[in-house]
Design goal:
The chain is α+β, with helices and mostly antiparallel strands and 154 residues long. It contains five helices and seven strands; from the N terminus they run αβααβββαβαββ. Bound molecules: coenzyme A (COA). Coenzyme A (COA) binds next to strand 4, helix 4 and helix 5.
C-alpha cells in the first residue's frame, strides 16, 4: 500500500484556497481567511503540492526575500497519507529548489518553525533544533481581531 501511493502521486505548484484550508483542517490547524489565503498562496516563493487523483493530499511552501532568507512553512500531509514519505519528498523538493541557486562562496539561511514534536522529522534533513550554540529559540505570536473589533495577541 505504502509504495503504491508514492507511484500514484503527482506534484504541482497550484492549490485552491479551499483545498489549502481543507489540508490545514486535516491536521487541526486554523483556517486562514479566504482573502489572506489567496494572497499568501500567490506570494509563495515556492509551492509544491502532492496530488492523488484530483485531490491535494500534501503541500509545502517557501516564503523568501529571494536573496538570503528562506522560510519553509505549511508543511502538511493529510493524516490519511502520513508515513508514506510524502513529507520527505516535499521537503526534499523545497531544499533542492533552494540549494540549486546557492553559488560558490554564498551562504543563505533556511529556517522553519517545527510543530510540537515534529523536530525529529526535520532533523533528518540537517535542521538544528533551537536553541543551540548562540542561537536562541524560535519565537512567534498569533494576532487576531474578533467580530467586535478587539485585537488580541496570544
Ligand atoms: C510532519 C509531516 C509533514 C510528516 O509527513 P509524512 O509524509 O508523514 O512523513 P514521512 O513519511 O516523509 O516521514 C519521513 C521520516 O520522518 C519520520 N517522522 C515523521 N514524523 C516524525 C516525527 N514527528 N518525529 C520524528 N520522526 C518523524 C518518519 O518516521 C520517517 O522516518 P523514516 O525515513 O525512517 O521512515 C506530517 O506528519 C504532518 O503533516 N503532520 C501534521 C502537520 C505538521 O505538524 N506539519 C509540520 C509543521 S512544522
Amino acid at each position: 500500500m505504502k509504495g503504491d501511493i508514492q507511484k500514484k502521486i503527482t506534484y504541482t505548484d497550484v492549490i485552491s484556497v479551499e483545498a489549502y484550508n481543507k489540508l490545514r483542517k486535516s491536521v487541526n490547524w486554523i483556517t486562514v481567511a479566504k482573502n489572506r489565503a489567496r494572497i499568501a498562496l500567490g506570494n509563495s516563493f515556492f509551492l509544491c503540492v502532492a496530488v492523488l487523483g484530483d485531490t491535494p493530499i500534501g503541500m509545502v511552501r517557501i516564503i523568501s526575500d529571494g536573496g538570503y532568507s528562506y522560510f519553509i512553512t505549511d508543511v502538511i500531509v493529510n493524516p490519511e497519507y502520513q508515513g508514506n514519505h510524502i513529507g520527505t519528498e516535499l521537503i526534499s523538493k523545497a531544499l533542492e529548489f533552494i540549494k540549486k541557486d546557492v553559488l560558490e562562496g554564498e551562504t543563505v539561511m533556511i529556517s522553519l518553525m517545527s510543530a510540537y514534536q515534529r523536530e525529529g522529522f526535520y532533523k533528518k534533513f540537517g535542521f538544528h533544533q533551537r536553541p543551540f550554540g548562540d542561537h536562541g529559540s524560535g519565537m512567534s505570536v498569533w494576532v487576531s481581531r474578533d467580530e467586535e473589533g478587539n485585537v488580541t495577541s496570544y
